[in-house]
Amino acid sequence: MRLGHSVEVVRAAEGALMARLPEGTLMQRAVAGLAAVCTQVLDGVYGARVVVLAGSGDNGGDALFAGARLARRGAGVTAVLLTPDRAHAGGLAALRAAGGRVVGVEDGPAVIARAALVLDGITGIGGKGGLRARAVPLAEAAHRSRAAVVAVDLPSGVDADTGEVHGAAVRADVTVTFGTHKPAHLIDPAAEFAGVTHFVDIGLGPELAGPVLEALQHADVAALLPRPAGESDKYRRGVIGVVAGSRRYPGAAVLAVSGALRGAAGGVRYVGPVGDAVLARHPETMVSSGSPHQAGRVQAWAVGPGLGDGADARAAVAEVLASDVPVLVDADGLRLMDPETVRGRTAPTLLTPHAGEAAALLGWAREDVEARRLTAVRTLAERLRVTVLLKGSTTLIADPDPDVPVRANPTGVSWLATAGSGDVLSGITGSLLAGSLPTRDAASCGAYLHGLAARVARGPLSALDVADAVPEAWRSVYV
Ligand SMILES: NC(=O)C1=CN([C@@H]2O[C@H](COP(=O)(O)OP(=O)(O)OC[C@H]3O[C@@H](n4cnc5c(N)ncnc54)[C@H](OP(=O)(O)O)[C@@H]3O)[C@@H](O)[C@H]2O)[C@@H](O)CC1
Ligand SMILES: Nc1ncnc2c1ncn2[C@@H]1O[C@H](COP(=O)(O)OP(=O)(O)O)[C@@H](O)[C@H]1O
Ligand SMILES: [K+]
Fold it and tell me: What is the UniProt remark on how the cofactor binds and its stoichiometry (predicted)?
């Protein structure tokens, strides 16, 4: 499991550890890891042009010390000091002693244009707001140049705790972070500014209090996914009921069922007006056209994709929400549901909105949801007292209990932004709910497998390609 900790927790852990270690130890551990990554990034250190952008804090100190190490190995290192009178004294002395030179901010863009590597040490976890005006031309020059941009701890300008970006920020190719990940490394838009993240262990682990964020890895998902045992039968594995599709949107029913068949459930019941289309593609489905309660017993419902907004659809959503089994609500179901009913349910409820649907439920603008994903998903989960999976470039899953860490899905790829892929996700995730996974785990494993399936299928995909690739994704997490 990859964990994300808040700045407050990182500072407390750092304080506790530093109290037991000689001064400067943690910084030198961080610097050793940082310099090693710079060496990997550079195509030969000797003679390479390196520019260090150094702010006034310890983040600048890390960058200056790493620059000194590279200078000692023959790199031509130039430091651009944002605040020359307040630069990190030890780091600056080390850089000068190693033969590095120092220029002012005005000369920054010109030296950056000729660099092979730019080390961004403007701000780390101490940064507030976007980049200040003096630093903006340096970030722009780094972005324009052909240099590899390596951010120290965080790309300067992003908000460590939320992954939000207010104003300008450095766009890094690589970010080297210390001690633990911060939410900004795992949540867009900041995660996109961070590029590829390298983690350097500086011994903080045992001192860290609880994380705010978790990102599952293969081993975590393999441990959570159910495996049919010798005595399993289709009913013991769980049956998922899918309420989706309409005469206008029959494809949504087919797609949701195709996902549901690849989840954990032993059987899929489809309830709705387009059973023929579902059977034509998936003969293993049990279809019925009446109302959900006439369909037979299920262990979970997935309701919403392609329902349209007719009276029957509204009634079906209300009926499913009145049941005592877990319910996943997606797409049109999110518009048709009564939020008070949702809030009052005692069985688990999982909502799976994209940014536009979340915006409608929150009364926010869509862009605000995309810019403030963590706050948006938490607010919605807390308001409606349900689990929420917010889809998009970073899919996030929040529990109604605000003390439970939010999960960030690490497998998503932008090829998933294809019509109907959300319907497939509803099916997979609903099927995991029917297979008795706890709601947050079903949501995070569903998103994980869905993203992995898109990676397995590679390149331009249709939603059915994603569904078809789920079994291979499922197999790959076990190895
Ligand atoms: N934690 C750990 O375990 C370890 C931490 N380590 C390292 O320490 C880093 C944290 O260092 P830190 O606390 O000194 O803060 P830091 O990020 O350098 O920035 C603060 C300075 O920036 C300024 N400033 C603020 N906002 C700004 C803006 N928008 N735009 C421009 N400038 C802005 C602000 O200046 P002021 O407001 O005073 O003008 C302030 O002086 C951490 O990220 C990691 O790299 C490792 O060495 C070892 C282990
Ligand atoms: N830029 C992106 N990167 C990764 N995944 C994305 C991106 N954009 C969309 N997705 C994923 O694609 C799926 C789209 O679902 P949704 O918005 O419901 O579309 P539809 O209604 O067409 O099925 C979601 O799983 C979402 O997380
Ligand atoms: K930085």
Answer: Binds 1 potassium ion per subunit.
Which residues 6+ apart lie within 8 Å of 376 measured at CB?
355, 358, 362, 364, 368, 369, 390
**For the chain, where do the domains classified as CATH 3.40.1190.20 start and end?**
218-477
β-strands 387-390, 300-303: how paired? unpaired
Residues of the chain with pLDDT under 70: 230
Q: Provide residues with CB under 6 Å of ligand 1.
A: 10, 14, 26-27, 30, 55-60, 62, 122-129, 131-132, 135, 152-153, 178-179, 202, 204
- How confident is the model at residue 439, as a pLDDT? 98
- Ligand 2 contact via 408 beta carbon (within 6 Å): no
- Which residues of the chain does CATH 3.40.50.10260 include? 2-215
Q: Nearest residue CA, atom 15 of ligand 2?
A: 422
59 alpha carbon to ligand 1 midpoint, in Å? 5
| 21, 228 Cβ separation under 8 angstroms | no
Classify domain 2-215 by CATH number: 3.40.50.10260
Instruction: Determine if ligand 2 sits within 6 Å of the CB of residue 414.
Output: yes
* Residue 24 in marked binding region: no
**Other beta carbons within 10 Å of 170:** 28
| Residue 57 Cβ < 6 Å to ligand 2 | no
Single pTM value for the model:
0.96
Give the ligand with the smallest distance to the CA of 14. 1
Question: Which of 185, 195, 135 lies closest to 162 in space, CA to CA?
Answer: 185
**Tally of CA atoms within 13 A in the half-sphere of 198 that contains its CB:** 21
Condensed to tens digits (0 to 9), the pLDDT of residues 234-262 reads: 777 899 999 999 999 999 999 999 999 99
- What distance in angstroms lies between residue 296's CA and the mean position of ligand 3's atoms? 57
Predicted local distance difference test score (pLDDT) of residue 237? 84
| Span from the CA of 27 to the centroid of ligand 1 (angstroms) | 12
How far apart are alpha carbons 106 and 377 in whole angstroms? 42
